[in-house]
Amino acid sequence: MQYMVNKYLQYDIYNLDLLTYAGDLTKHKEIESRDNYYFVKADIADREAIVSLFEKEKFDYVVHFAAESHVDRSILDPSTFVRTNVLGTQVLLDAAKQIGVSKFVHVSTDEVYGELNFDPTTFFTEETPIKPNSPYSASKASSDLLVRAYHETFGLPINITRCSNNYGPYHFPEKLIPLTISRVLNNQKVPVYGDGRNIRDWLHVIDHCAAIDLVLHEGLNGEVYNIGGHNERTNLEVVKTIIATLGKSEDLIEFVKDRLGHDKRYAIDPTKLEALGWKPNFKFETGIAQTIQWYLDNEEWWQRINSGEYKTYFEQQYGA
Ligand SMILES: Cc1cn([C@H]2C[C@H](O)[C@@H](COP(=O)(O)OP(=O)(O)O[C@H]3O[C@H](C)C(=O)[C@H](O)[C@H]3O)O2)c(=O)[nH]c1=O
């Protein structure tokens, strides 16, 4: 069996490498192969390249991770999000349909549901109506609908997974947790949007990978599965935890202008996935401590990113 996983490799789970990095895929054309898994670093909107790859390799399974994933970047420039997330997904779906895959797993996000209020008894379920608020989440919701349409119209076997906020090693320093860790370690101010009371439900990337692996093999054809870590925290709690763990002062916190259209709260009800046999193994306290340690041990990795391709973005977003 041939598996196609279209993003950079990162974690080994049952020999399946999964990844969190959604960098600029358009820069890479090469394809890596390991065992029966292919990690495609091609421009996913490049129809010719993708279709000929699918025809050549005859993939049985496709796990579609690739996305432009950062909400702030989608506010700065929505167009790349439409190209990669919407057009790119449609190209992959066409290629999958053409060769007739056994399963196409589309990795999506809880942001397609919009936002919850602060009532702690409310959660996103798979039945929650789609109501995306940012250009990023609108592009992901659009791709979800295309995946659904290819299932309904052409009978393509699919699953859609919708995860909450990921964290863990190799998380790019544009996102809240790695941004905070790297800035605190550099004694830079940590920008907290608005009043810091927005809530996210943190999911360790390894728990996420295990869930996707389960859905790939056991998910019922055509079904959506929500994946959440039961780890709700306010942004301020997250930032304070990191600062305390690193033994630094809360004076580093700087409240800055709120994100446009900033969703108040995300929280997942993962009951449907749990019925397949999944549960998260990471409590936030353990996961964040291990993640901070990983950034301490791998400073060269994130310092290089911060001083390289991300420098211009950080200057534009934070003015420093
Ligand atoms: C970068 C940054 C973020 N924030 C706030 C904004 C959010 O309330 C929270 C987390 O932000 P972040 O950009 O890390 O993640 P989300 O916007 O929640 O979205 C993330 O989780 C979902 C599920 C995906 O699907 C996205 O792909 C993923 O990026 O921290 C700040 O206060 N300051 C900052 O500098």
UniProtKB/TrEMBL annotation:
<dbReference type="InterPro" id="IPR036291">
    <property type="entry name" value="NAD(P)-bd_dom_sf"/>
</dbReference>
<keyword id="KW-0456">Lyase</keyword>
<dbReference type="InterPro" id="IPR016040">
    <property type="entry name" value="NAD(P)-bd_dom"/>
</dbReference>
<protein>
    <recommendedName>
        <fullName>dTDP-glucose 4,6-dehydratase</fullName>
        <ecNumber>4.2.1.46</ecNumber>
    </recommendedName>
</protein>
<dbReference type="Pfam" id="PF16363">
    <property type="entry name" value="GDP_Man_Dehyd"/>
</dbReference>
<feature type="domain" description="NAD(P)-binding">
    <location>
        <begin position="3"/>
        <end position="291"/>
    </location>
</feature>
<dbReference type="GO" id="GO:0008460">
    <property type="term" value="F:dTDP-glucose 4,6-dehydratase activity"/>
</dbReference>
<comment type="similarity">
    <text>Belongs to the NAD(P)-dependent epimerase/dehydratase family. dTDP-glucose dehydratase subfamily.</text>
</comment>
<keyword id="KW-0520">NAD</keyword>
<dbReference type="InterPro" id="IPR005888">
    <property type="entry name" value="dTDP_Gluc_deHydtase"/>
</dbReference>
